[in-house]
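In this section we walk through a basic example: taking a raw amino acid sequence and producing a predicted 3D structure, encoded as discrete structure tokens. The instruction is simple. Fold the sequence below.
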Amino acid sequence: WRIEIKKYPKLTEIGAWRNGSIVGLWPGKGNEGIKYQVLPTAINITPKNAMIKTDDVKHGGFYTQEQIKDVVDYAAKRYITIIPEIEMPAHSMALLAAYPELGTEPNKKYTVAETWGMMNKYNNVLQASDTTFKFLENVLTEVMELFPSKYIHIGGDEASKVWWKQSAVSQQIMKSNGLKNESELQSYFIQRVEKFVNSKGKTIIGWNEILQGGLAPNAIVMSWQGEKGGIEAAKQNHQAIMTPENKMYFNHAQFVKEDSLTAGKPSLLADVYNYEPVPTELNAEQAKYIWGGQGCLWSEYITNPAKVQYQLFPRLDALSEILWSPKEKKNYPDFLQRLKTQFKRYDLMGITYSKKYLSNTF
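The resulting token sequence is shown next.
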């Protein structure tokens, strides 16, 4: 947990710290040769007799509310709006470590995760109870007071339904609200939160999984699992932001052979530049709902600021050009020529990037 919430101090006292970090990639596909172990609460998704190794180094920290105000002000002076994301109903291990009563196993002792990934590996899903919603409303109230953005990202991705299926309380909530399945329970969860956020004059953004069980009335969809979610949202007259993982995830390797630990399959510079965020299957009216695109940089395998820059540049330049330029003016060979001047700017600014681009070996 990375932001101070004054009403719930345990979020940062407990939830902001983990006791170690996994060594290498989950679930053991890296070149480090480490075996991995299934966690005690895991559904069987990992290799037999696997074993996790962590570095046993405590890691964490958080922004105070005063620091957040400074960041928001710094961005605003540069015409940047920061949109906060408070993840729900899953990816909530840090929250549950601090307040386990909000989960589907309230008597369980949760710990902040030391490994990456999600789904059935461990129970990180919030209970769709009135207690949970009141907690989230209080958190969101403090967050919205810090961020003037008209938009609040509420996550909504990678919520494994198995934990609700196994919970008698979840099943009773479904029955009481006439919900046929766990996907509808997720939609109920998101719509409850959206109603509160809308009452504060703001709009929610969620990952494409919020389409499951029925899309919240005013939600904006970020499509990361390919383009399908964005297309579906646009056809329902909802705004969509395209950020398909195979093109727009800058935590992925930028070369087929990378010299440092990264996640996922390569997202090459050419892949980014040649991406067209408005799908051809949308008609002109539907295409108006494609709000733009986003490059994502998740930091599990990024341990210092220099690697942040290394992963971002020059792919961020490619993304900027395709989003801000007319499609008919895209020209990848010309872009590569202009990058030579851009690299000189990087050097003057002290920005880290791969020198493979200078030798044309990528």
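Looking at the output, two observations stand out. Residues 182-199 form the longest helix (18 residues). The beta strands are 17-18, 59-60, 85-88, 151-155, 203-207, 220-223, 240-242, 290-293. In the next section we compare this with other chains.
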